């Protein structure tokens, strides 16, 4: 439960149709098992105390009284389980029968939620037995000797409009719906979300027909995404009557459009998932349209929700969910290739529009032989091809200086030749030395002035070459560099259009590799692969024995760590403590905790200190969920204090 995580369990117990005592024993066994493994929210299927397929037996008084008696037994025998438990049963209220979900915690029955939408088509006949719970609002006496509505400890509220709130985890708000409720055109969960619920539970008995599993999975997944919530879907399985249909027990746990856990079908059991409540709350908070309700605009009467409080012990959640160490990069090759092609097209379309709008026929790129300038050239070539323009109008300028190695120089030359761009070489050593003389800088002093003078000289050349050709300078800097401020102000920081400005370094590599794998040009593929194998470096310091001496990641840290920190800070708005916890899991076996903590502190320090560089960035296309454009995603003052974040980071071990 710390850091906003809560473990949920979707259960499919073995049942015997109409055998309430046996079913209750299985529910108790499974609930205690799930609780023993840390589940704090446990969901059982629809009508699981009796079985869903009782048919006309639902009219039998003995079955109904037996179900109620076994509910009390379940409450007693799960009192020691530190969890909120949802079970399904037929419930009589004011002379009508309802298909209800009962919420239990520590021996107390918190409330009953009746099903609203009753399927009465095809193989379903719920309308024959049950009454819709829409508008129901009252209390149920658990003791048959007490009259309905009388006051006593056995009085339990019944309403479809109920929120279950955890005293110890105030941001957790749970609401329930039952099977068909989700499949309706206006699911109750929509209203639940409007009233604050961020974890939906669904007690279901959905039968199996060919292909239905995919639709069910998509339904649960998309509902969790639309409502920015967690969704726990527990359905009936083996043990239900197979007189006409079969139940497969496809349990699902989703969070904001992502499946966290899914069971095998036709095998009863428990499915677990760790739902991040704090992330859901943060995501809702940033979406200004989330709380808009059309009903409120039309003056319709809104249902009155009542809140039921329950208690849980605060403890660490043993996380089962996979934490991707490269959150910007899809895992599977097929999806990764699709993402790469999509990103390249977004980048190229952005540049295409800019070129077409200003009637520009030329583009100028500083080509270093490194990853970022390579990607920028590949994108520019794609944009020119889209416009039907001659690639010779792309000027690739290589500007060797003190730190340039033969390897990167050669790769820059070969790359431009393979792509059909015009290659122009301008050696800047003499110009930089003259500049050193003019400002009185000792060229043997390899400090920031030594390095940045080269970067600014290169930018001046690019701008002037662009003026000569009537073109624009295409920027090469990527998102990771901008986040860390790893760019020379008014040097490589500047361009007329930055095609890589929202592409993180971890994704840059895959974009270049994708191009290498799909270009159908052996020579081009070979040079791209060699560029991928070259250490990331600004090449501003003299090489040692002909090889790169200045490696960026030795100075600012591993980019895979910084991209991880960036994603969870900006996209998920997590604090340092939570990011550190996730990083330890994601990079287990790659980096030790001292290394992760060291670079986490540096990330926060640099991110805040270097905002002034991001406040005046050139235009560039957004390609993913994170960007740092001052006109788009990141409205952050350049002089904001990092104290809160650094203080928390300093307390970590």
Largest sheet features:
7 strands, mixed
Percentage of residues in DSSP E strands:
15-25%
**CATH homology-level superfamily of the largest domain:** HUPs
Cα shape: elongated
Helix content: 25-40%
Class inferred from helices and paired strands: alpha/beta
Using only C-alpha atoms, the radius of gyration works out to: 31 Å
Task: Considering the chains and any ligands shown, give keywords for the structure.
653 residues; alpha/beta; Nitrilase/N-carbamoyl-D-aminoacid amidohydrolase; Rossmann fold; 2 domains; seven-stranded mixed beta sheet; six-stranded mixed beta sheet; 21 helices; 39% helix; elongated
Compile the SSE list and pairings.
Elements: E1 5-11, H1 20-36, E2 41-43, H2 61-77, E3 84-93, E4 96-105, E5 108-114, E6 138-141, E7 155-158, E8 162-166, E9 173-178, H3 180-183, H4 188-194, E10 199-204, H5 212-226, E11 230-235, E12 252-255, E13 258-262, E14 270-276, H6 277-286, H7 294-297, E15 306-310, H8 333-357, E16 363-366, H9 371-387, E17 394-398, H10 406-419, E18 422-425, H11 429-439, H12 448-469, E19 472-475, H13 479-484, E20 497-498, H14 505-518, H15 522-532, H16 552-556, H17 559-571, H18 576-586, H19 593-609, H20 611-614, H21 643-650
Parallel strand pairs: 1-2, 2-3, 8-15, 9-10, 10-11, 16-17, 16-19, 17-18, 19-20
Antiparallel strand pairs: 1-14, 3-4, 4-5, 6-7, 8-9, 11-12, 12-13
């Amino acid at each position: 439960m710390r850091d906003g995580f809560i473990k949920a369990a979707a259960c499919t117990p073995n049942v015997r149709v109409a055998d309430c005592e046996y079913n209750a024993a299985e529910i108790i066994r499974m609930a205690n098992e799930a609780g023993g493994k840390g589940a704090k929210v446990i969901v059982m299927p629809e009508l699981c105390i009796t079985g869903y397929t009782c048919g006309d037996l639902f009219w039998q008084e003995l079955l109904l009284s037996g179900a109620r008696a076994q509910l009390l037994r379940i409450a007693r025998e799960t009192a020691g389980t530190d969890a909120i438990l949802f079970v399904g049963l037929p419930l009589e209220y004011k002379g009508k029968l309802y298909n209800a979900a009962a919420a239990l915690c520590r021996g107390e029955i918190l409330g009953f939620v009746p099903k609203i939408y009753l399927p009465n088509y095809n193989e379903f006949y719920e309308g024959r037995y049950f009454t819709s719970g829409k508008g129901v609002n009252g209390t149920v006496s658990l003791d048959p000797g007490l009259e309905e509505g009388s006051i006593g400890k056995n009085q339990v509220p019944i309403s479809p409009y109920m929120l279950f709130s955890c005293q110890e985890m105030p941001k957790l708000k749970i609401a329930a719906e039952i099977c068909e409720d989700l499949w309706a055109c206006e699911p109750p969960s929509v209203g639940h979300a409007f009233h604050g619920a961020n974890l939906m539970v669904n007690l279901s008995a959905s039968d199996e027909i060919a292909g239905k599993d995919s639709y069910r999975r998509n339904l649960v997944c998309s509902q969790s995404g639309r409502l920015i919530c967690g969704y726990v879907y527990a359905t009936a399985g083996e043990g239900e009557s197979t007189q006409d249909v079969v139940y497969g027990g496809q349990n699902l746990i989703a969070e904001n459009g992502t499946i966290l856990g899914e069971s095998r079908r036709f095998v009863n059991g428990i499915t677990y998932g760790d739902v991040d409540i704090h992330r859901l709350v943060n995501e809702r908070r940033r979406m200004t349209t989330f709380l808009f309700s059309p009903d409120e605009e039309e003056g319709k009467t809104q249902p009155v929700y009542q809140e039921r409080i329950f208690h849980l012990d605060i403890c660490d959640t043993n996380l089962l969910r996979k934490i991707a160490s490269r959150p910007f990069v899809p895992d599977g090759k097929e999806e990764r290739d699709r993402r790469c092609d999509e990103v390249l097209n977004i980048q190229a379309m952005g540049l295409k529009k800019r070129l077409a709008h200003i009637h520009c026929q030329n583009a100028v790129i500083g080509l270093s032989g490194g990853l970022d300038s390579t990607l920028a050239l590949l994108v520019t070539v794609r944009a020119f091809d889209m416009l039907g323009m001659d690639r010779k109008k792309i000027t690739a300028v290589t500007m060797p200086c003190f730190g340039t190695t033969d390897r990167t120089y050669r790769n820059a030359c070969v790359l431009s030749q393979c792509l059909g761009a015009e290659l122009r070489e301008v050696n800047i050593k003499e110009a930089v030395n003259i500049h050193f003389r003019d400002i009185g800088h000792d060229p043997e002093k390899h400090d920031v002035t030594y390095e940045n003078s080269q970067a600014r000289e290169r930018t001046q050349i690019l701008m002037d070459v662009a003026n000569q050709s009537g073109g624009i300078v295409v920027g090469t800097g990527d998102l990771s560099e901008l986040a860390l401020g790893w760019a020379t102000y008014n040097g490589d920081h500047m361009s007329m259009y930055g095609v890589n400005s929202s592409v993180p370094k971890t994704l840059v590599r895959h974009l270049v590799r994708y191009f290498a794998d799909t270009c159908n040009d052996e020579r081009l593929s070979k040079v791209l692969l060699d560029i991928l194998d070259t250490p990331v470096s600004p090449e501003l310091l003299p090489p040692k024995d002909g090889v790169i001496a200045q490696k960026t990641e030795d100075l600012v840290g591993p980019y895979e760590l910084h991209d991880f920190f960036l994603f969870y800070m900006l996209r998920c708005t997590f604090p340092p403590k939570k990011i550190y916890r996730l990083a330890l899991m994601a990079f287990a076996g790659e980096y030790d905790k001292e290394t992760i903590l060291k670079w986490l502190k540096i990330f926060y320090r640099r991110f805040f200190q270097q905002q002034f560089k991001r406040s005046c960035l050139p235009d560039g296309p957004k390609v993913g969920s994170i960007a740092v454009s001052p006109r788009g995603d990141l409205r952050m003052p350049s002089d904001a204090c990092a104290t809160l974040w650094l203080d928390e980071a300093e307390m970590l071990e």
